[in-house]
Amino acid sequence: MLSHRHRPPSPVPDADTRDDRVVDLAADSAARERARETAWLERVRDHGDRDAYERLFAAFTPRLTAWIGAQGLDGASAEAVVQDVMITAWTRARLFDAAKASARTWMYTLARNRMIDHHRAGERRARAHDGYATLLPAEDEAVDTPEQGLTRARIAALLEQLPAEQRQVLLLVYVEGRSHREIAQELELPIGTVKSRARLAFNRLRKLLEDPAP
Amino acid sequence: MTPAHHPGEAWLMDYALGNLDQPFEAVLRAHVGVCASCRDTIAFAERLGGEIVHALPGRPVAFDARAICDHHEQETPRPQAVSRAHGIAVTDDIERCVETYLDSSLDALPWRGVGQGLRLCRLGEQAGARTWLLRGKPGTVLPHHTHAGSELTLVLKGAYFCGDRIYRAGDIEDADESTAHQPVITRDGECICLAVTEGRLRFRDLLPRLVQPLLGI
Ligand SMILES: [Zn+2]
Q1: Domains of chain A (ranges plus CATH)?
Q2: CB contact under 8 A, A93 and B74
Q3: Can you give the pLDDT at residue B177?
Q4: CATH architecture assigned to B107-215
Q5: Which residue of A55, A81, A169, B196 pairs with B23 in a disulfide if CB–CB is 3.0 to 4.6 A?
Q6: Closest residue in B to A136 (Cα–Cα)
């Protein structure tokens, strides 16, 4: 997932600055993509716009399905959860408030709430995991548009700025839905070590995403 | 109320993602209800969740958008927060908050005196974590102890010192196996705390070790 494979060719030949330029370009594109998603959801909310809903659907169902699969649900259950989330996004779009969250955050919180209500942490945890890396589909199964690929490159580039051990904790928490206490047991690390890795990773990304570099 | 001591980001991420068992979830919810700073952190944790999910390579699905639009009417739902940061009742009266949660006044609970100006009330155990209330007279010195796992302590009333830190109503003390402490209640008034503890406490001194099995702490 978090490889360089999805980065577009560099617009400049200088190898030292290339990564930064690509990140800047991708940041622009990611912001535009985020704004577009929010505009679609507002059209669904305000006008029951089916075209906008179809775009929203195409942008979110594949990713949410991948995420819920990584949390330990089998293919059919993951699809049932995502279908439910997408029905909610259509029927209850009037709950969306762009002043509080982007469409991307809102769709994520809908899926998370559905997981909390119907698949409690203990139950999810009881399922076998093979690790987040192996649960992801091979690249050639992915169904992203080129621009979605660019956004992915941007997030991947941000995650790549983290030391490997911090990234590992963050992805176990977010992608597999493990608590930091479970991670400490699994990796046989003191709880304090896992907490400090989580803190460093989280605050670094918070800084990068909340006030992007000029 | 502006709490000065907060749970670590690891707890707030777990809270935002719904990764916690009920006892830790409950004590965090009470703090988050009075802490704007932690609500902001949770809102960012949700945003980060959206971004990370967006970084996953998508998987194709076998259902389509048109069928959903054809078979479901759009509703006008009652306003309802979907965020775990916005969805929390915010109140400055944390004591009252916990009474509502317990469906009992604090005074009506079955407190057990354990000597040295200290009373305990065990509220339950789930998934290896015990929830209890602790109530001490002004100036009470608690036994020096370390932890076998995580411990979150929320001050409901009064205040206590731990080394050079002071924990007041609304604050959370976030302790784990690396923390050794000896809380001392301030002289200003009684102190009531809600604590969730995983694993047995390890006391340095003999007397508390002797009474520990009787108290179940
Ligand atoms: Zn706080």
Answers
A1: 1-126 (1.10.1740.10), 127-214 (1.10.10.10)
A2: yes
A3: 85
A4: Sandwich (2.60)
A5: B196
A6: B57
